[in-house]
Amino acid sequence: MPRSAASDSASLRAQLADKRVVVCVGAGGVGKTTTSAALALGLAREGRRVAVVTIDPARRLAAALGMDELSSQPQRIAPAQLRAQGVSCKGELWAMMLDAKRTFDEIVARLAPDERSREEILANRVYRELSTAVAGSHELSAIAKLYELYEEHDFDVIVLDTPPSRNALDFLNAPTRLLGFLEGRALQVFLAPGGLTARLFGRGTALVFAIFARVTGVDMLADLSTFFRSLSGVIDGFGERTRGVQALLRAPETSFLIVSSPEPEPAEEARFLARRLAQAKMRGARLIVNRVHADGLGGRSLKDADALLSDALGGRLGARVAANLADFDTLVQRDERTVRELADAIGELSPIVVPHLDEEVQDLLGLSRVAEHLLG
Questions:
Q1: How far is Cα 81 from Cα 218, in angstroms, rounded to an integer?
Q2: What's 63's domain CATH number?
Q3: Which burial class, exposed, middle or buried, applies to 229 when counting CB atoms under 10 A from its CB (0-12, 13-18, 19+)?
Q4: Spatial CA neighbour of 141 closest among 159, 160, 125
Q5: What pLDDT score was predicted for residue 207?
Q6: Across residues 303-329, what is the average pLDDT?
Q7: What is the C-alpha to C-alpha distance for residues 149 and 265, in angstroms, rounded to an integer?
């Protein structure tokens, strides 16, 4: 490793000192959700008011924070709960799980010009179907929620846990794609006043819709007309929020953390992410490598380790322990090589290394220990 783990952690703390948004990205199964929660806890311990948000449908964040479930609004981790697990915290730790459908409904409630328009959209069949379908694409609602947390709450830091890397890139690209839709010609045709039916459908298609309405009782054409007419009142507000997030993701107060493990596939994903973040001009990407084996022979030869352990434990037991350490030393050397090669490949001078822990992180105390490796 280019530098000591302690100095790397100190440099990460210094890097995040003036950040308001920290986005954690990486492959699945590398401890990204745990890293996000631990980082948020570490920053809160230092006196900051921190919110950690997950858009990962797997709902692992609640378990990592020692909670049964998270709500769709920021929920503070009670100071008494922290103290009960021996964790001191000068600041505040808040957490939430993104509920995409509810987020869309809240956007409509906030941006609709009046109560009638709001109720018209929320009750519209087309909106209900679209909002439910789009809810499967969490990155769009995450745009709105990130804007809300940043602009309308007084958090010092927002830590965002994203889905596995390819989906995380969908989130990063979502503002650009959504703006293209909101400002595109196709949507403007729908929103143009008057003649919607004539513009979109010929007489034959309109007749089919009429028969469908008579048989099913659902006037789809009327629902479409009402939906797009009502939607025009929230388009500008949604576009403003999207532009705000687009700028925020590239702002100096935002930092990205690429989370990986020493395994070949996650390491390759980390390389891919680093390239894409650089291309998108996202700032301050740092590398965190989890589950790195660190306990082996400690630079000694097997013969020297055998001799030392035999003196302390007896010949037979000492030899068995030395052989076991030699097996782990193979993993230690492999992980060191992978971290070094990965850091060189993405131009990372001081990767943050979190050692392979003997137990799963299941509570706040475990998160606190991970936070110490991240921040010192």
A1: 51
A2: 3.40.50.300
A3: middle
A4: 160
A5: 46
A6: 79
A7: 34
